[in-house]
Amino acid sequence: MERMSFDLAQVPLREVNTFLHKDAPARGVRQVVVTNPDGAHNIAVGLDCPVEVEVHGHAGYYAGGMNKTGTVTIFGSAGTGVAENMMSGRVHVKGFASNGAGASMHGGLLVIDGDAGLRCGISLKGGDIVVGGSVGSFSAFMAQAGRMVICGDAGDALGDSLYEAVLYVRGNIKSLGADAQIEPMTEADFATVKELLTAAGMQHDPHDFKRVASARNLYHWNADADQEY
Amino acid sequence: MSSNEHPAKPVVKEESFGYDRKTIDYIRNAAAHGLYEIRGMGAKRQLPNFDDLVFLGASLSRYPLEGYREKCSTKTVLGTRFAKKPIELEIPITIAGMSFGSLSANVKEALGRAATEVGTSTTTGDGGMTQEERQSSKTLVYQCLPSRYGFNPDDVRRADAIEMVIGQGAKPGGGGMLLGQKVSPRVAKMRTLPAGIDQRSACRHPDWTGPDDLAIKIHEMRELTDWEKPIYVKVGATRTFNDVKLAVHSGADVVVVDGMQGGTAATQTCFIEHVGIPTLAAVRQAVDALEDLDMKGKVQLIVSGGIRTGPDVAKALAMGADAVSIGQGVLIALGCNHDSWFQNGAHHDATADYAALGTAPGYCHHCHTGKCPVGITTQDAVLEQRLTSEVGARHLKNYLKTLNMELTTIARACGKQSVHHLEREDLVALTLEAAAMARVPLAGTNWIPGVSGF
């Protein structure tokens, strides 16, 4: 199995991404190491083969964006929109993640060992997000499907205008958004949390988590709601 | 006989200007329902538009081209700034973004077929790309919207261009809507939503805020497609001068400016009629922005919102657009607001179905109900059969051909070998409003209100 290494201090990003899109699947390269990312945006976006990309350092915006079947591990922190619109595969941030982590993800697993900023899991359409630390305000805004496990605290307006996504929170929730409600954990929920924690390599007791889901009161226009949404 | 034995009978009933019957209806409706009106189509109010401009055809001071013999090119290239594979079209008239969901799958296919036959592009909408439209469209522009419904990197790779949608003319600053009756199981699956819910799209993109972020987002799309595909940025017309500059700054290859006459399948009426500026005003601001940045001809401009006729296209191009985009006119060509529908070789009267919606042919704006009497803006399994893609494509092809012939007729009359040679100097205005907005002189004068002294 061929392993390739790119030094972003020497090689333009465009070459690296083109290699990942075209040469990696054609040559069967399964491991690519990126060094000196220095906060570059759009590292390893649009992966479309089961390649493993290691980023040694901090990544800028949209690292691993729109990933399909690839694996991206960032040994550092990630900027806005890490793993945005991921379809499948896995993105793992060893440090912290900025705003909009996992925005509009359709599938796959996003693991953030540290904290995530504002709007983590916004517009989520599937897949799973596990955050080792806390998430900022407006996380899971309009999240449609998929699951989020938050091992720390959640900021304001968690799950505002939530559709069918389900959130599990271990710490405090500063406030819930419109139409989000805390629901009792079932055996299936405990199993889900355990499964996701295991997949993320984190160890917590599933019984410490709360379940947040949609009350489904915003699904239809309601004249008597007095615009409280 | 005293004067009060025959009191004067009033001969007129005076309707209040401020509280006319339309306003009374509006207030009664609000009082009855406690909810604003949601409807389809674009602004219905009278606005300054391209009809308020006329061309100065050639005469002694300019030399015309022979109407039917001499060449007048309509070839149009979009996306020359950064993309390795710019879009090459036979005509400068494209099909605007309209979603599967708002439109039936048959209609989406008809748009693709007709566009392919005349050599132009179609555009997806809020809700993702359907197989029908990809297969039927030679050139397909894939929209990236705030909702990201069905947004998929495979479709990005299958698209010919990407359009970052910031807003639309019918509702700049607002997100889309699709009421429950149109959220069929197929639509729901494509959008990852429960079927039958009243769907509200986000108005802001989930992963960027502001033009500096947009530049990085556009860069992501370029990296994802290895810099092959043109990136359009579409804005609803409001602060168009600034918005176009920011779109250029963000790295757009093409800017799409949609004026307030632009249509919608479901939006609050207050939004449609009261937010945004007319297309005529917007196109001038957009061109000014490109000229100010010395980007005219480097970044292409597409104008949409109330483009209906060949003369509309010609005037938009003369004002400085590189192409136009049409939505509502296209649907009307397919039979929107027609009194009948055509099936199995016969016309079938649709007026009863219009009446059931509380409307009539020529007045219908009930796209939001999903009960389109002519089978266009519907997901209903029975209604959607009222327009087959074959019939739709034939009518649309005729419409686009007509517009293009009108466009070249005018261009030749102005002495242009290419429709892109039409220029502002060829236009004058018939009204003060149009003269001021388009900044072309009032006909027969040198006066441009706000620019030159009277």
Topology of this protein?
The complex is a heterodimer of chains A (229) and B (454).
Chain A: E1 3-7, H1 13-27, E2 31-35, E3 52-56, E4 71-74, E5 90-93, E6 109-112, E7 125-131, E8 145-150, E9 166-169, E10 180-183, H2 187-200, E11 210-214
Parallel strand pairs in A: 1-2, 2-3, 3-4, 4-5, 5-6, 6-7, 7-8, 8-9
Antiparallel strand pairs in A: 9-11, 10-11
Chain B: H1 21-33, E1 38-39, E2 53-55, E3 76-78, E4 87-89, E5 93-95, H2 105-118, E6 121-123, H3 131-136, E7 139-144, H4 153-158, E8 161-165, E9 177-178, H5 185-191, E10 199-200, H6 210-224, E11 231-236, H7 240-249, E12 254-258, E13 267-268, H8 269-274, H9 279-292, E14 300-304, H10 310-319, E15 323-326, H11 328-334, E16 340-343, E17 346-349, H12 351-356, H13 389-413, E18 427-429, H14 432-438
Descriptive labels:
heterodimer, A: 229 residues, alpha/beta, Pectate Lyase C-like, eleven-stranded mixed beta sheet, 11 strands, elongated, B: 454 residues, TIM Barrel, eight-stranded parallel beta sheet, two-stranded antiparallel sheet, globular
